[in-house]
Amino acid sequence: MKLFSICQAIVSASLLPRLLLPILAVAIPATAMLKTAEAQDPPVPLIFDTDMGNDCDDALALAMIHALQSRKECELLAVTITKDHELAAPFVDCLNTFYGRGNIPIGVCRNSGKTPDAGKYNQVAKITDDGKLRFEHDLLSGNNAPTAVEVLRRTLAQAKDASVVVVQVGFSTNLANLLASPADAIHPLSGRELFAKKVKLVSIMAGAFAPIPNDQGVLGDHREYNVAEDISSIKKLVELCDVPILWSGFEIGLNLTYPHQSILQDYRYVPHHPVAEAYIAYIPPPHDRPTWDLTSVLAAVRPDRGYFEISKPGTVTITDDAISRFAENPQGKHRYLILKPAMAMAERTREALVQLSSQPPNPSSGGNQRSP
């Protein structure tokens, strides 16, 4: 998702085969892991756990989720946030409200110390025009939101057994805290027991499962940002999570960049768009940002479309220096995404990410398209 030195890490198309060759030998169809969704299947119940504000791909991923919900492919149950700043929740709320779903529960982490700065674009939620918020929403500070653990426990308690997919695209802080939580008034099960009972899959953007070029262009192990920012929490997630985890490694989004032309053209159906303004505030175009977080959403909701292949089953371990290691194991509950090297297939996946993230709000959902 994020990168300590992003400018040097963007890989040219000619490097794609070199990045993917080590993992192609174990590629198998994604349908081997995830049940094929028939057209009449109900929407996927989804929890989105994000470090909103640290990179603009979080905003694009949340926009994708709203588009998929409008298509009746998923239902966003809650959003929980691992960025420890009070403006992250208001930005999520303004985005949810823009898409006509301002009542979705939002939970926050507090006093974690994880990226406590405001970020480059969460201030979009505070922009005013003629004394009114440009993007209407009513959650003005994360200090007024419940904790992520409370929201997660309440949401899972109300869900059907083995039904929920959790998409985690930030740090593992919230899920680790949930898994370690005791029984309480919300539910008599511990967090680990409740999670195992209600969740069927965790789709996580974290780690790296192919060599990544360093600042000098030399391929090697990569300390992926979501892992490195809270190593103890992702280790706890790996240890305590009893349901399958599907990993989208750093190499996936890195090789599926979001075309900046879409930001400049596809969001112009309103005078101001929170997603486009977030992207521009993060790094102004021309800049094609990697689609790290979007890939975890796509794989979670559309597992049967052939956008990715996945590895054989195995187990991921996290080293003390934030390197992700994968070992094949037929009984393992972990697999990771593999991007097909054929350029046509990669472009098909990229186009799905672009079309979904830029889809206008469904008018029936009451999407906010007020002009300032």
In total, how many beta strands? 17
Instruction: Count the domains.
Output: 1
Overall pLDDT level: 90
Task: Please name the fourth-level CATH homologous superfamily.
Answer: Ribonucleoside hydrolase-like
Tally of helical runs: 14
Output the CATH class name.
Answer: Alpha Beta
What fraction of residues sit in β-strands? 15-25%
- Residue stretches low in confidence (pLDDT < 50, at least 5 long) are 1-32
Tell me briefly what this model is.
The chain contains 14 helices and 17 strands. By secondary structure, it is α/β, with parallel strands linked by helices.
How would you characterize the overall build of this protein?
The chain has 372 residues and is an alpha/beta fold. It has one domain: Ribonucleoside hydrolase-like (Inosine-uridine Nucleoside N-ribohydrolase, Chain A, Alpha-Beta Complex), CATH 3.90.245.10. It is built from 14 helices and 17 strands. It has helices at residues 6-9, 16-24, 57-70, 88-98, 148-157, 173-179, 191-198, 225-229, 231-240, 250-254, 260-265, 274-282, 292-301, 343-357; strands at residues 28-29, 44-50, 74-81, 106-108, 128-129, 132-133, 164-168, 199-205, 212-213, 219-220, 245-248, 257-258, 289-290, 309-310, 314-318, 324-328, 334-338. Helix 3 (57-70) packs parallel to helix 13, helix 5 (148-157) crosses helix 6 (173-179) and helix 6 (173-179) packs across helix 9. The two termini are 32 Å apart. The model is unreliable at 1-32 (pLDDT under 50).
